[in-house]
From TrEMBL:
Keywords: Hydrolase. Residues 143-306 form the GAF domain. The keyword Transferase does not apply. PANTHER family: STAGE II SPORULATION PROTEIN E, STAGE II SPORULATION PROTEIN E-RELATED. Signal peptide: none annotated. InterPro entries: Bact_Sigma-Reg, GAF, GAF-like_dom_sf, PAS-like_dom_sf, PAS_4, PPM-type-like_dom_sf, PPM-type_phosphatase-like_dom. Residues 326-543 form the PPM-type phosphatase domain. It holds the Pfam family GAF. GO terms for molecular function: phosphatase activity. It comes from the Bacteria. This is PAS/PAC sensor protein.
């Protein structure tokens, strides 16, 4: 809705009254306010008129303020209460509200001197609220940068008018990753300042309040007015211009320290006209910073583990062995979430007798242990296949026995296939240990799922090394395509295995005319969500002309 006209100037008595006066329309949009109300809100009149009361004081929702305003609207009579002014002030006031013909007038009379114990309790409640907010906002992700960027939305507007959140890397370099301004119209200005200030500070040799806070590990409260203190450590240029336009009256910097190191930095600022940061503000913000630092460092450490595990996985997934008789394509796509690093793998290697083994497998679990177990199983199977050439069922039995004998305590599904060149085509022999069957696509026909005939599915690896294992043989001819995949391609929380398999067969049939590499890309693009929940491994083989 358009901002209302502020109307004629307030009477001199109201304008100079040492109490905050607000006039609201029927929708609780600010129509008028006096100088004290402008000071308490911490923003100029132009940024307040036309805004709803709840946007100016978001923590008033559901409070006694709401109750008083509702009573006036319902009864048409004056009402009042003694209450704690909504954050960020957290001071006790006497509130009086009355209908004025155009809406509701509100008067706030500070009573801090009479309510020191209640004000202290209010500050304690505010600290608990902030700490709870940090836990709720930061515990929802294990990505360090996402976690720390959310912090600015917790602190503004409760503790400051604007906030910058900074990461400190292992080399001590600072990088701004989050920013929030209480005034949406100034968000772009704050973003521009965040993008330019670090390069300006580096050009000045790093002699800044940020460097001081990182080096000492203690909060730094800037001299007032903060805009002059900040401008003094910035070189001439856009960063200094943006700082002056933001015009902070007070500011403080809080290091985010966890496990003996500074992992980040928070810059909090308040506009001119608002009181500066006192020791109680610093203590409250420091408690929030301590909680945030631990969440950030946990995310950083988990990210390191995830990168190591994923790197190990990719290093083990070597390029597949090729053959003049067929083309082989492989794909591996990790899960989008760091918490979902898993044990999917593929392999394709030659045996001494001239055949080629294809392997696809999935270790049960989604953590670094699953990734490590995947490496063990892959290497065990390779060694067994090279030392004692055997069919797919025999190799899975030998692998199961080796897992039991060597104490590899994990469960896994796997499908092993063997390709033997023949004069009339390529013989495919395969056996599955609880793994989805291969998909076969023949020229001019739709895709079908291959299984082991009428036999019950064989057990997973790691359950019973004495279990009997079965296989199936199939002669592949020129143009035939076989696809091996892990269940991440067809199964997820909102889609069962049967539905996913049907979608896979349909997609393979529709894209039958594509080259093998293009077919793999099309399947991943069409069947997977933008952020896959599980790892996906894929091996595709297309038989060429016999000769």
């Amino acid at each position: 809705m358009p901002a209302p006209d502020p109307g004629p100037d307030l009477p001199g008595a109201l304008h100079s009254l040492p109490a905050a006066y607000y006039a609201l329309d029927g929708d609780r949009v600010l129509r008028r306010l006096n100088a004290e109300a402008e000071r308490l809100a911490g923003r100029p009149r132009a940024h307040l008129l036309g805004r709803r009361w709840g946007d100016v004081f978001p923590l008033a929702a559901g409070s006694q303020v709401d109750a008083v305003l509702l009573e006036v609207a319902r009864t048409g009579r004056p009402a009042g209460a003694e209450l704690l002014h909504p954050a960020p002030l957290a001071v006790w006031c006497s509130l009086r509200a009355w209908p004025d013909g155009e809406g509701t007038s509100v008067l706030l009379l500070p009573a801090a001197a009479r309510r020191a114990p209640e004000e202290a309790a209010g500050r304690a409640a505010l600290q608990v609220q902030l700490l709870a907010g940090v836990g709720a906002h930061l515990s929802g992700t294990l990505d360090a940068e996402t976690a720390v960027a959310r912090l600015s939305g917790v602190l503004v507007p409760v503790l400051g008018d604007w906030c910058l959140v900074t990461l400190v890397d292992d080399q001590g370099e600072l990088r701004d990753v989050g920013h929030q301004h209480v005034d949406p119209d100034r968000q772009e200005l704050l973003r521009a300042y965040a993008e330019t200030r670090m390069s300006s500070l580096r050009a000045r040799g790093g002699a800044s309040y940020a460097a001081q806070a990182v080096r000492s590990g203690r909060p730094v409260v800037l001299p007032e007015p903060a805009v002059d203190a900040i401008s003094a450590v910035l070189g001439p240029g856009p960063a200094r211009d943006h700082a002056r336009a933001l015009d902070p009256g007070s500011a403080m910097l809080l290091p985010l320290r966890a496990r003996g190191r500074t992992v980040g930095l928070v810059t909090l600022a308040r506009g001119r006209g608002r009181r500066g940061f006192d020791p109680e503000d610093v203590a409250t913000a420091s408690g929030v910073a301590e909680r945030a630092a631990l969440a950030l460092d946990n995310a950083r450490l988990y990210g390191q583990q995830q990168r190591i595990a994923e790197g190990l996985q990719r290093d083990l997934l070597t390029p597949p062995a090729q053959s003049p008789r067929w083309q082989t394509a492989v794909r591996y796509l990790p899960a989008a979430q760091a918490t979902q690093v898993g044990g999917d793998w593929y392999d394709a290697f030659h045996q001494p007798d001239g055949s080629t083994m294809l392997v696809i497998g999935d270790v049960i679990g989604h953590d670094t242990r699953a990734a490590a177990a995947m490496g063990q199983l892959r290497n065990l199977l390779r060694g067994i296949a090279f030392a004692a050439p055997d069919g797919p069922a025999g190799l899975l039995s030998r692998l199961d026995a080796a897992m039991a004998g060597l104490g590899v305590g994990t469960l896994a599904t796997a499908l092993v296939a063997r390709l033997d060149p023949r004069p009339d085509g390529v013989l495919l022999r395969f056996s599955s240990a609880g793994h989805p069957g291969p998909v076969l696509l023949r020229p001019g026909r739709g895709a079908v799922l291959l299984d082991e005939g009428d036999e019950e599915p064989d057990l997973l690896l790691g359950i019973d090394p004495a279990t009997a294992r079965h296989g199936r043989d199939l002669l592949l001819r020129a143009g035939d395509t076989v696809l091996l995949h892990t269940d991440g391609l067809v199964e997820r929380r909102d889609q069962g295995l049967d539905v996913g398999t049907a979608r896979l067969l349909d997609a393979v049939s529709r894209h039958a005319g594509l080259g093998l590499e293009e077919l793999c890309d099309a399947l991943l693009r069409e069947l997977l969500p933008p952020r896959p929940e599980d790892d996906v491994a894929l091996v595709a083989v297309r038989v060429g002309a016999t000769g």
